[in-house]
């Protein structure tokens, strides 16, 4: 990373505050240094501590200035309307993940609005769940939707990491008040309709997992997965220093031992999780599958990994960009792939491969 | 262009009954500068989503797992007028989207209603209030110096009454101020990119 010129530090000190100058090495520009300093101050104002506020601010600025991600420094990251707790050892939720999760929620709501009878239940399986940001935001968004008020929502998160599963449960408790159904529906005296959410600590490669998941739900509606997808060279080459130094490798790069599997399934080492998840999808046959990917090339490789069986099962195959909802109705982008039309939605980098057993409403 | 602007208010008039909108307009013309915040026009409503182009500002690069910047900035462009607003007030993108829409509504209100816009009226009220405060402290000073006049005393009583009424609204005004201040000083800029109708005013 290039060194910042001394003039920027001068300006930060003069125009904002000496503490902004201290944040600069991590923030890289004046605007974000000013923003982060303001957020650190707000955080100190909004949380209690026996330590004097000025000292706390100074400590947090020092930590952030050393390069620790702000989310670990403050302990949280907003995600939709939720606040997700973040701790070292578990990946910080990304804005791209937030964007497609909200988009997915809007699709599910639209789907419900079109069907004449609301389904009795809707189940979500999130593999590699980390902080549980994805199932929590989905449940929160769906639960507020009027036409789903009679539907019982259920989600299950899987992660190999003990730290992740513990943090996932903590986040469930932390956001519990935002997950309960709106009070109006309780008047109609229905069975407890609050969404249910469970977590299991397991490797998605474990052969025991599939039968367990089948016993949890005979038919999963949604399977989401944001697996480790960075290659060893990509990790060295274009992964930010704060990510490399402070976020868990387990969450970012597929395990080297698993990479051995890659040669068996004839895919690149960084794609090995997709091979497994698609294998699971062929067994569980969820109505929708949402896989986060690291860019356009990886998105195409994942589409290429679809077996004939899966191609027949999923009538809709799409690639979503960073902002899947952007530019809706203004343009239509399509790529041809193996004789199949793959719709490309939104703007930005290739971010998601989306499979759906039905055909999408509203072209 | 002129015609386009004059038809503009119709595009983002609040969805509620029209007469209410007119009502508030008339009220604004009769009381040129309301002394109390109670007379403030309602907060303007943002234009429909179909007139908004939204973008999320973030650096170039691969994004996703490889980067963990806190890029929560939201930029809106109002397609009919070209007005651009930006908010990075909070760490939450959802929150910034809401704030940016409020900002845009305020900019449009200023464009259409000018000195009768909510923003202009709020700042007018604030100016008056500051002036009256200054006057009062001067008077207090004089009072101490022992040159209090009868007439002045009556005036003062009246004012004090008004002040109390305003007190309740104080918090609300501060909220407005806080929002605009944050947005201006450090995180949201509003750029009026080619406001096509500027020459009409
Ligand atoms: C990129 S993170 C995604 C976290 C979260 N879903 C999100 O979007 O922010 C990948 C997660 O996969 C987990 N993981 C890694 N290997 C795994 C495996 N074999 N089975 C299950 N989870 C695994 C990691 O612990 C990490 O929490």
Polypeptide structure, described:
The complex is a heterodimer of chains A (363) and B (201). Chain A has helices spanning 6-16, 18-27, 30-46, 53-65, 70-74, 95-114, 133-143, 162-174, 176-179, 184-187, 209-216, 232-238, 241-246, 249-252, 256-264, 272-284, 296-305, 308-313, and strands at 76-79, 82-85, 121-127, 152-159, 196-201, 222-225, 288-292, 316-323, 333-337, 340-345, 347-356. Chain A is an alpha/beta fold. Chain A folds into 2 domains: 6-67; 95-356, Vaccinia Virus protein VP39 (Rossmann fold, 3-Layer(aba) Sandwich). In chain A, helix 1 (6-16) crosses helix 2 (18-27) and helix 6 (95-114) runs parallel beside helix 7 (133-143). Chain B has a domain at 9-144: Double Stranded RNA Binding Domain (2-Layer Sandwich), CATH 3.30.160. Chain B has a 4-stranded antiparallel beta sheet. Classes of the chains: A alpha/beta (363), B alpha+beta (201). At the A-B interface, helix 3, helix 6 and strand 11 of A face strand 1, helix 3 and helix 5 of B. S-adenosylmethionine is lined by residues 91, 93, 97, 128-131, 133-134, 158-161, 164, 203-205, 226-228, 250-251 of chain A.
Core attributes:
heterodimer; A: 363 residues; alpha/beta; Rossmann fold; 2 domains; two-stranded antiparallel ribbon; 47% helix; B: 201 residues; alpha+beta; Double Stranded RNA Binding Domain; 4-stranded antiparallel β-sheet; 5 helices; 4 strands; 9% strand; elongated; disordered N terminus; binds S-adenosylmethionine; methyltransferase activity (chain A); methyltransferase (chain A); N5-glutamine_MTase (chain A); S-adenosyl-L-methionine-dependent methyltransferase (chain A)
